[in-house]
Amino acid sequence: MGRPNRIQFPGACYYIRLGGNNRQSIFLSNQDRRAFLQLLRAYKERFGLKVYAYCLMESSVDLVLETSQPNLSKVMQGFNTAYTKHFNLEHGAIGHVFQGRYKALLVDKEKCLLDLTGYVHLTPVREGLREKPWRYLWSSCAAFVEAEEREPLVDSEAVLVRLAKNRLKQSVLYLKFIKERAKQGGISLPSHASLFIGDLEFAESVRKTVGDLPPAADAPVAAAAAKAILADVLQRHRVDEERLLGRGQWRKLTAIRREAIYRIWREAKVGVTELARMFNRTPSAISQLIRAADEKAYKINK
Question: What's this model's pTM, rounded to 2 decimal places?
Answer without folding.
Answer: 0.72
